[in-house]
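User: Hi! I'm working on a homework problem where we have to compare a predicted structure to a textbook description. Could you give me the structure for the chain below?
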Amino acid sequence: MNEASQAAASEQVPPKGFRLVAAAFTHRKTAVMLVLGMAAGLPNVLLLGSLYAWLGEAGVNLETMGVFSLIGLAYAFKFLWSPVVDRVRLPGLWRLGRRRSWLIPIQALVGVVLIVLSRLDPHAALGWFSLLAGLAAFAAATQDIAIDAWRVEVADEVATLDVLSAIYQLGFRLATLMGGALALVLAARIGWPAVYLAMGCFMLVAMLASWLAPIRRFPIAMTMKWPWPDCRHGCGPWHWAS
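Assistant: Happy to help. Predicted structure tokens:
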């Protein structure tokens, strides 16, 4: 009896060292984290890096290009709306899960905006181009909030937070290379519109990773409904779910 209990206890011991790494790399969470890391890194480099190369080729002056750098403020100030992403459940989407209900529509928005940008002439339609680029940056920053929260929530003894964070950085760096160096090489051959079209399609494909992402069930009382409160208990933009 003692031997059986000792064997059962040994089987419950979490893997360590190389066994932990091997187990983590065969885990579904790790594969999802890699794709989500790429989905986070791609808009970042496309909107804050490669976009200026496209604007330069289109003949946009340096002063205007400098104004475009303001869209990077969305990443700097994303902490301002992170409580909204954490506590608010979107209508019709919250049943997908606390994080997936944000990830899926946000990734769809980023992908669609990149595709629309590929159809615009940045010189002739500079106003719409800048507006859409700012919208994509805001959506991408919001995606980062949801991805970071998902990574913390789903970490376990096998796919630990350290491993998931490392995989996230790997995906982010791969996307940086794809949206930076590779995009420059492809743009010289097929043009920037085709490059942004392809990257937008990748963002739409990345939605599959969000669909497959494991979710953690959460109490309804931890969220807030959208969008109107019961004014009998006081009005405000958000109200606690009953």
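For your comparison, note the following. Confidence is low (pLDDT under 50) at residues 6-10, 226-242. Residues 28-57 form the longest helix (30 residues). Good luck with the assignment!
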